[in-house]
Specification:
Shape: elongated
Number of domains: 2
Distance between the termini: 50 Å
Mean pLDDT: 93
CATH topology of the largest domain: BirA Bifunctional Protein, domain 2
Structural class: alpha+beta
Strand content: 15-25%
Largest sheet: 8 strands, mixed
CATH class of the largest domain: Alpha Beta
Number of helices: 15
Number of strands: 16
Length: about 425
């Protein structure tokens, strides 16, 4: 072939698209229950938005963004993550209005672009379902965000999700962790991976979540942020645990959960599932109390999460949920003989306008071939229309599962097929 899809991308074909729709529609429904409203931001933003918010020395900004210069000489970047564009829209569109204490709750389902090494469930164009709650410092909101994600996982059949939580402190206490972490690994930096050698100077906390076994051994004895929290951060983390326990949500405290973006403060969390093996993360998030201010707004706290749809689909596949039989639906119009073709074609479009999913065989094959096709494609019933039916003003409706059939008047066919 002359052309192939770009590396790290995929074509979502009609046979798997229903799985995507189910996941996306379930996420929308869960967000509706939690009173989150949908937001859709542009697919590209000013590059500086990601540099200032995510962090110039993060892997995302330094190595993974798709950045280009537009015809006006402005640097633009394809959406590299979902939170910064949402915060930009929050400020630009004044979503909080005059009520500066109002909690604004938003969700999105959007493609994310990162020029990273493709891996299982993580593509250079992958898709993220995310939520942002902007306007409250309360740990109860952190717990609600976590609860929404777990509700979503359960609603799509995923059980056994593990929740890992940590606190990364705030600008008042995080620097002490960075200093002690650097001191504790200083003598072993040379044995760590190249990324960690770079992060030692530029993004020190990321040393803790490196998956390289040598690096993990080096940081095993590193100080823990929870031991160095200031009073405010300690109270917030205690409040998070209290609210999680009130909701009956099981969690593990993992001091290595630091997330990969500079804007996180206080709460950091991650969802994992053993069905994915080594790459077991299916989402995560945290609090970002300084991000709105970094983007040019007032000091407004926020918390959010993102989950990768590809990763979620992989878990469902590993659990055997992807092979669940899709229910039959729709009607296949079977035109019997040339004289029935135009009446059948008109009937097809009349049914569609009435809200019925319907299709016809444009190859105009034999009745037997049409019936075989209707069965193979999973239609609920076949609507047979021939000369006899036309003369009587009826159609013969055959149930494709039971084989039972009945004559239905054409003027009441749409209502009959919709079960009315």
């Amino acid at each position: 072939m002359r052309y192939q899809r770009p590396k790290g991308t995929q074509d979502i074909l009609p046979d798997v698209a229903p799985r995507w729709r189910m996941v996306e529609n379930t996420f929308r429904e869960v967000c509706r229950r939690f009173d989150f409203g949908e937001i859709r931001t542009p697919i590209f933003e000013d590059t500086d938005l990601f540099v200032r918010s995510v962090g110039a020395e993060t892997d995302i900004v330094s190595k993974e963004m798709y950045t280009f210069e537009d015809k006006g000489g402005r640097s633009q970047t394809l959406r590299a993550e979902g939170t910064a564009p949402t915060v930009r829209a929050f400020l630009e569109e004044n979503l909080q209005g005059q009520d500066r204490e109002r909690l604004v709750k938003l969700y999105y389902i959007a493609p994310i672009f990162r020029q990273d090494k493709p891996q299982a469930g993580r593509y250079r164009q992958h898709h993220q379902a995310g939520i942002e709650a902007i306007g409250s410092p309360e740990p109860a909101v952190d717990a609600e965000v976590i609860s929404l994600a777990l509700t979503f996982f359960e609603a799509i059949g995923i059980k056994g999700t593990r929740l890992l939580v940590n606190s990364v402190g705030c600008p008042a206490c995080a620097p002490s962790l960075v200093d002690e972490l650097k001191a504790s690994v200083a003598d072993s930096v040379g044995s760590m991976c190249r990324d960690c050698q770079r992060r030692y100077e530029t993004n020190t906390l990321r040393l803790l979540d490196c998956k390289n076994e040598v690096c993990r051994q080096v940081t095993d004895g590193a100080p823990k942020m929870l031991d160095l929290l200031c009073g405010e951060c300690e109270a917030h983390f205690d409040g998070l645990r209290e609210h999680l326990e009130a909701l009956g949500i099981a969690y593990e405290i993992d001091p290595r959960i630091v997330r990969g973006l500079d804007y996180y403060t206080k709460t950091a969390f991650e969802f994992r599932h053993d069905a994915l093996g080594a790459q077991d993360s299916i989402g995560g998030g945290g609090r970002y109390d300084g991000l709105v201010e970094q983007c040019g707004g007032p000091s407004i706290p926020g918390v959010g999460l993102g989950t990768g749809i590809e990763r979620v689909l992989l878990v469902r596949e590993a659990l055997g949920l992807a092979d669940e039989e899709q229910p039959r639906e729709g009607s296949f119009i079977v035109a019997i003989g040339d004289e029935a073709w135009l009446p059948a074609y008109r009937l097809l479009h009349d049914l569609r306008r009435a809200g019925v999913k319907a299709e016809i065989d444009y190859r105009r094959r034999s009745m037997r071939a049409q019936m075989r096709y209707a069965d193979a494609q999973g239609y609920l019933n076949a609507v047979l229309l021939g000369g006899d039916e036309i003369a009587k003003g009826v159609a013969t409706v055959r149930d494709m599962l039971s084989g039972e059939q009945e004559e239905v008047a054409l003027d009441g066919l749409a209502a009959h097929l919709k079960g009315e």
